[in-house]
Structures are given as structure tokens and as C-alpha cells.
Amino acid sequence: MTRGKQKIEAQKRNAEKNQKQKGSQFEARAVALKITCPICKVQLANPKQLGDHYASKHPREKPPAESE
């Protein structure tokens, strides 16, 4: 009977391992994305991405000063 017991324990361990993580990706995304483009309201993670965004999407505009 040890094999049967081992099988049940293995199934329990796998079920615990395969459970979804608590929390949502939306919450994690909101924490990571802190900078917002004032023109198109897209959210970015850091000032470098904001500069790249302005270069590609708003080439005639100047990026805002880094006050954050």
C-alpha cells in the first residue's frame, strides 16, 4: 500500500504546485508602470522608455523634464 499512498501524496503536491498565484497581473502591472505619457496616456515603466516613446510616437514634441 505504500505505492498508493505515495501516489496520493504526489497528486496533492502537484495540485498545490499547479495552483494559480494569488493576486492578479493587473495589480503587478499597476505597480510597475509609474510614468504616463501626457499626450496619449500610455503607461511606461521608466523615463528612458518615455524618451523612446516620444522619439517614435511624438517626434515633433519634446519629452517632459524628468521630475520623478
TrEMBL record:
It holds the Pfam family zf-met. One of its GO terms (cellular component) is nucleus. Its main location: cytoplasm. Residues 37-58 form the C2H2-type domain. Residues 1-25, 47-68 are annotated as: Disordered. InterPro entries: MBS1/2-like, SERF-like_N, ZNF706/At2g23090_sf, Znf_C2H2_type. Residues 1-19 have a biased composition (Basic and acidic residues). Transmembrane segments: none annotated. This is C2H2-type domain-containing protein.
